[in-house]
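TASK: fixed-backbone design
INPUT:
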């Protein structure tokens, strides 16, 4: 049996390429030598020193991350087995479909590939299940990495044989050539995927690389570290609804037209240097011709292309113009969706948030979503396509060496850019965290401006902010310094490739090897045209990476679970008359149990009812659960036990909007928007007329006070209403509740922080709003609720007393004790007022009657 086919010698190494006999034998021998010799040594070392991995696969990772890595590990296994099967199948088909004799090198290489691939499977499983007694492995061992690299390089070396007509199948002249080409594509893709997955090492990161000592966990944020492109598909899937204008056919047409302009630009980039060469060649030699048509076409293409990078060309300008509306759609969609999602989150989440940090995340995230698509589609993708076109053109029109130089240079440039940029990720992420902390510090300090003044802490706040800036600038310096390092390395790679290609081109022109001066002009102009956008590749890649980093926190916000959601099929709250409901209560708590944390219950089996048109008051010491009852009724939280009925319907079975639309709340601490008084009153019912708002202000006893302001109803109340007094803010809140005209009223200690006279005025306003409405009051001052139809006394989350004011006083229990204490305190305050003022009051010191008591 011959080792090589007839008329092919193993020693015949080069003739416009290598022979398949030589190429496949050397490739199989080198790869087998690597994996068998050094792999066997690794197996011996593992058997002697290794111990089972102490952590189970996926330890410390989320279910989604664990499934993703397990899938990739299985892909590694399947591809390796497929390659082994492929070599056996090809050998079997050699004498039939491929119509060629089986020679010695085919048997030898097939056996070597099958053995070496199975050896790699053994090493993969050993590295997954065992570990050496040293620093935990951060990836696959050197043997497997070199083996996968050699596999991929071997397939790439096949391109050296494009110009060899004998044996190789690139010309696709027969069925056998087409089958071989299909096999080659399968091998190439398989070895490429194995090479990439080998760098990622999914079988190891799930086994023991995800612990607290791993680089995959961020110490400050607690989030998984690693490439910002991890879960790329998931992130793009989240953004996809915002990137495609689903409801606008005109914008969809604009997107398609932009892609057409992008494709046309790739063709223009190829023809610009081609016509430059044609112009130069037409002017050289004795047969020089005035080719004005070449000049006009060249100028026309340059007009369409622009200044080399497409930055000033008609095509790029037109595409940019059309893309403005698409970008605005994306930005608008992301911002609105995120804003709506934040409003849909629970009160628990909002109480624990940092406003400055959330706003920073929103701004950076939406800006990143705006530029992400443009960077990928109109910067990275065209650059990669231009590189592939250039490699193919130089191989076909010049020489394979030019294509090889371009391919190696571009590949090395991209690999270096990605590697260094990924290495810089930790510095960018740390800078973002420091920036978040700086912004949160400044916003928190300014929001608490009064507290800072009360405690004379301006210098402390300034020093703390200065320290936050120092920390941010320290991280910023690291990010900027590593960026300069990246630019230097990129410039070195680009200059090296340009030098090698130029030397080869000039040599072939001078040595008369089939190239002309025009070819050198073509090469130099094309390569420089290609390097200009490539120089921006690092910037584009960093922009995309920065976008993903900036969007990480935004994705976290979008993934934040809504604690309180409408049940499937929930309908609106239907309020029927009490007679139709059979005399049922408007509000009813049935054995309600709730706690903000599992180990600290706030309410313990609370049960009570509020009949239609009646008033029930909740009293008790701080922390007894009074305000929690209000929050549960408004469904800021869901009960953990029991049920809450409104109008005979469980609040969990009706929509939140319909429930809250029927309830009016006057909170203890009124917070107003930094807008006009009119705006804040109108917030009770945004479609109300001006006359209705004025009428509501009159009922709230604030209309005359508003008219004394310089701008009247247009007076801006300031941040959180700080320009108004406590009583004025409270009456604005009452006015907008009156304007809302709800079925139920919740008063959460609405007058606890007011002086006596203001309290009396507001009580009169509350009497108007509560008249003939079902009312639930949380009271601090007992004198404000003596009119209530029922008073519930809470202590440590339980109702210990219930009844009317007189009944509870007669019992002599907790309520009577609280009443006596408040009377004593009120008498003491009264004596202090009389002592300070020598003028007796006209009413003889008698308290004014309580309108609600009337």
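OUTPUT:
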């Amino acid at each position: 049996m011959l080792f090589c086919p007839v008329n092919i010698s193993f020693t015949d190494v080069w003739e416009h390429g290598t022979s398949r006999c030589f190429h496949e034998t050397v490739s199989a021998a080198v790869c087998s030598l690597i994996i068998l010799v050094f792999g066997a040594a690794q197996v011996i070392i593992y058997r002697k020193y290794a111990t089972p991995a102490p952590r189970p696969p996926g330890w410390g990772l989320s279910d989604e991350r664990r499934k993703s890595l397990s899938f990739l590990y299985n892909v590694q296994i399947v591809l390796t087995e497929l390659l082994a099967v492929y070599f056996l199948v090809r050998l079997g088909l050699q004498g039939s479909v491929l119509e060629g004799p089986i020679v010695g090198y085919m048997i030898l290489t097939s056996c070597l590939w099958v053995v070496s691939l199975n050896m790699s499977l053994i090493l993969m499983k050993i590295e997954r299940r065992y570990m050496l007694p040293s620093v935990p492995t951060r990836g696959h061992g050197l043997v497997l990495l070199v083996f996968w690299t050699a596999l991929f390089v071997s397939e790439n070396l096949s391109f050296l044989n494009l110009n060899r007509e004998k044996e190789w199948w690139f010309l696709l002249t027969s069925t056998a050539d087409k089958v071989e080409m299909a096999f080659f594509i399968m091998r190439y893709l398989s070895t490429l995927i194995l090479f990439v997955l080998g760098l990622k090492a999914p079988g190891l990161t799930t086994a023991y690389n995800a612990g607290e000592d791993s680089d995959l966990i961020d110490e400050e944020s607690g989030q998984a570290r690693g490439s910002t492109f991890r879960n790329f598909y998931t992130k793009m899937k989240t953004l996809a609804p915002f990137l495609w204008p689903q409801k606008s056919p005109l914008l969809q047409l604009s997107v398609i037209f932009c892609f057409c302009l992008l494709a046309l630009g790739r063709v223009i980039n190829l023809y610009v240097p081609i016509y430059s060469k044609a112009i130069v060649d037409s002017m050289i030699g004795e047969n020089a011709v005035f080719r004005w048509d070449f000049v006009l076409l060249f100028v026309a293409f340059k007009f369409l292309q622009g200044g080399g990078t497409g930055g000033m060309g008609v095509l790029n300008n037109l595409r940019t113009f059309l893309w403005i509306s698409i970008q605005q759609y994306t930005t608008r969609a992301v911002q609105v969706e995120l804003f709506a999602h934040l409003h849909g989150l629970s009160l628990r989440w909002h109480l624990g948030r940092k406003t400055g940090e959330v706003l920073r995340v929103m701004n950076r995230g939406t800006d990143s979503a705006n530029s992400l698509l443009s960077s990928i589609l109109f910067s990275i993708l065209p650059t990669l396509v231009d590189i592939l076109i250039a490699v193919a053109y130089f191989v076909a029109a010049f020489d394979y060496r030019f294509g090889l130089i371009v391919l190696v240079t571009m590949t090395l440039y991209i690999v270096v850019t990605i590697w260094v940029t990924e290495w810089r990720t930790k510095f960018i992420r740390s800078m973002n965290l420091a920036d978040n902390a700086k912004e949160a510090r400044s916003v928190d300090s300014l929001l608490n401006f009064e507290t800072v003044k009360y405690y004379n802490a301006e210098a402390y706040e300034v020093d703390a902010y200065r320290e936050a800036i120092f920390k941010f600038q320290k991280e910023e310096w690291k990010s900027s310094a590593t960026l300069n390092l990246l630019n230097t390395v990129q410039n070195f790679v680009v200059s090296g490739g340009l030098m090698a290609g130029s030397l080869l081109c000039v040599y072939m022109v001078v040595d008369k090897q089939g190239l002309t001066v025009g070819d050198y002009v073509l090469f130099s102009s094309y390569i420089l045209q290609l390097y200009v956008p490539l120089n921006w590749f690092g910037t584009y890649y960093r922009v995309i990476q920065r976008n993903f980093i900036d969007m990480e926190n935004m994705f976290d916000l979008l993934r934040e679970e809504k604690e309180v959601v409408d049940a499937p099929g929930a309908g609106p709250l239907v309020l029927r008359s009490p007679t139709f409901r059979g005399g049922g209560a408007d509000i009813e708590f049935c054995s309600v149990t709730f706690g903000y944390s599992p180990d600290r219950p706030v309410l313990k089996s609370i049960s009570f009812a509020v009949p239609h048109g009646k008033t029930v008051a909740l009293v008790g010491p701080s922390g007894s659960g009074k305000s929690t009852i209000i929050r549960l009724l408004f469904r800021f939280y869901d009960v953990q036990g029991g049920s809450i009925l409104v109008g005979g319907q469980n609040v969990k079975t009706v929509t939140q909007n319909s429930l809250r639309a029927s309830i009016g709340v006057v909170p203890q601490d009124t917070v107003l928007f930094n807008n006009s008084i009119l705006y804040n009153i109108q917030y009770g019912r945004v479609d109300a007329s001006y006359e209705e708002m004025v009428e509501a202000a009159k009922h709230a006893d604030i209309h005359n006070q508003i008219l004394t302001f310089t701008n009247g109803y247009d007076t801006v109340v300031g941040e959180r209403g700080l320009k108004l007094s406590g009583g004025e803010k409270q009456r604005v809140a009452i006015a907008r509740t009156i304007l809302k005209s709800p079925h139920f009223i919740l008063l959460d200690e609405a007058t606890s922080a007011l002086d006596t006279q203001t309290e009396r005025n507001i009580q009169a306003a509350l009497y108007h709003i509560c008249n003939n409405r079902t009312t639930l009051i949380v009271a601090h001052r007992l004198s404000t609720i003596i009119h209530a139809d029922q008073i519930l006394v809470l202590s440590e989350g339980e109702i210990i007393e219930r009844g009317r004011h007189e009944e509870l006083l007669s019992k002599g229990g907790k309520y009577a004790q609280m009443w006596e204490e408040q009377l004593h305190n009120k008498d003491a305050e009264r004596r202090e007022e009389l002592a300070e003022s020598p003028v007796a009051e006209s009413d003889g010191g008698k308290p004014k009657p309580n309108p609600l008591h009337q």
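COMMENT: The first helix runs from residue 20 to 49.
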